[in-house]
Amino acid sequence: MLGSTLFVDKSRDRVRPVVNLFLDELEEIDQYSWASGTLAWLYRCLGQASRAGARGVAGCLTLLQCWIYEYFPGFRPSHFEPPVVGPYEAWASRWIGQPATGSVADPSVRLAFYRRALDRLTPSDVFWTPFHQRPHQVVRRSLYTGVIRFADIGEFYDPARCLRQFGYRQMVPPPPSRPQRADRPEAPGGYVIRIPESFDAAWDALLSHMVHIDMYSQPWRTYPYETTVDYLDWFVAHSHCRVLRDDGDADRLVDPQR
C-alpha cells in the first residue's frame, strides 16, 4: 500500500526506509494525514518530472489519473459512464478496470496528440466541481493554506490559486510563499526544495491559516469558470499558456460563447 500505491518511486519493488518510521506505532496510524502526505509526495515527483532531463514520473499516479478523469471529461475512457460509489468506497474505484482513451494507437504521436488536445481546451471543457459544488463545506481543511509534508518532503498548498474548484470566481491570488532553498536543475537528481520547519505550525492552526473564501471571493453566477476582470491578464502574464509553441497565442482562454 505505502510503497507501491501512495509513495511510489522508481525503484519498482523497493520502499523508501522513511516509510517504515510511520509504522513504529501502529495505534497512531489512523492519526496521520495520509492524504496530504500522498499529495506532497506527488507534488515533489511532478516537479522532478518537469525537468528537461527527466525520463519518467513517480508518485501516486492513480490519484493523478483519477484527478484528470474527474476534471477533464474529454480525457476519460471512451464510451464509459462512471458509476456512483458508495459512502465507504474509494472514489477512484469508479475507474477500476477501464482502459485509457483509445484515441491514439500509435505511441510515436500520442504525446503530441495530447499536448495539442490540452492546448485546445476551453473553460467549458472542464468539470470545475466534480466532487461537490462547495467541497470546502464537506472537507474544511481543503481551504488550508500552507505547507503539506511527507517526512522531509515539504510542498506549498494554496487553494487561493484554484478558487473555481470550490465554486467561486477566480481572483488574482496573492504572491506565492517562497522556500528557504530551491534548486531545480535540468537533471531531476539535483532537485531540492527546502522549507523551514517553522512553517509546519500552520497545520495545527487551521483557522488562521486557511482561505476564508467568503471574504476572499464570491460564488460564480453565470458560468462555473467565472473570473474577475483582471484575472486573465494576470494569468497570461504569469503562466505558460501553451504546451506547444507552434499553436498560436492564448486565444482559447475565454470560452467562445461568452
With helices defined by DSSP (H or I, 4 residues minimum), what is the helix count? Answer: 8
- Order of helical and strand elements: HHHHHHEEEEHH
- Biggest β-sheet: strands ordered side by side in the sheet: 1-2
Measure the end-to-end span: 46 Å
Instruction: Quote the average pLDDT.
Output: 85
Shape: globular
Q: How many β-strand runs?
A: 4
Low-confidence parts: 247-258
* Secondary structure category: mainly alpha
Main sheet, how many strands, which sense, barrel? 2 strands, antiparallel
Protein name: Aminotransferase-like plant mobile domain-containing protein
Pfam families: PMD
Domain Aminotransferase-like plant mobile: 1-235
Organism: Linum tenue
Write a brief structural summary.
The chain is mainly α.
What does this structure look like?
Residues 1-235 form the Aminotransferase-like plant mobile domain. InterPro entries: AminoTfrase-like_pln_mobile, MAIN-like. This is Aminotransferase-like plant mobile domain-containing protein. The chain is built from eight helices and four strands; from the N terminus they run H-H-H-H-H-H-E-E-E-E-H-H. The strands form two sheets. A two-stranded antiparallel sheet has the order 1-2. The protein has a two-stranded antiparallel ribbon with strand order 3-4. It is mainly α and 258 residues long. The chain has helices at 2-6, 17-21, 34-49, 61-71, 107-119, 135-138, 213-216, 231-238; strands spanning 146-150, 153-157, 181-183, 192-194. The chain is globular and about 50 Å long. The N and C termini lie far apart (46 Å). Strand 1 (146-150) and strand 2 form a beta hairpin.
